[in-house]
Specification:
Blueprint: E1 6-10, E2 15-25, E3 36-44, E4 50-67, E5 76-84, E6 95-104
């Protein structure tokens, strides 16, 4: 899906734009690793600015839904990214959740 031109929508921040790059650290994650230190998604907003969306201390994700027969040929993906919450509060959940929607741009 990421080989095609895609849009990123982040409802929590009102961020939306065309994805131009994705990077993460550590560069090569081992399946035994428990977290990704940083995920950076750069997108171009409607004003033409490149905007970085950085998510730190990712400990997991959940694919909420996808449109297509399989994940590999999906046109739209909706997912929740779970990151470690630095603030120890009275929250029942031990992580923060960020909802992302990634959709393929059609040529129509």
């Amino acid at each position: 899906m990421m080989k095609k031109v895609c849009m990123l929508m982040t409802p929590a921040y009102g961020a939306e734009g065309r994805i131009v790059s994705i990077g993460f650290r550590p560069y090569w994650t081992n399946p035994g690793d428990s977290k990704i230190e940083k995920l950076e998604i750069n997108f171009v907003d409607n004003r033409g600015r490149v905007v970085p969306l950085c998510i730190y201390s990712i400990i997991g994700y959940e694919i909420v839904s996808f449109e297509g027969r399989s994940l590999e040929d999906a046109k739209n993906i909706s997912l929740d990214i779970h990151s470690y919450a630095n603030v120890k509060g009275r929250k029942a959940e031990k992580y923060d959740t960020l909802h992302l929607e990634i959709g393929e741009i059609s040529d129509e």
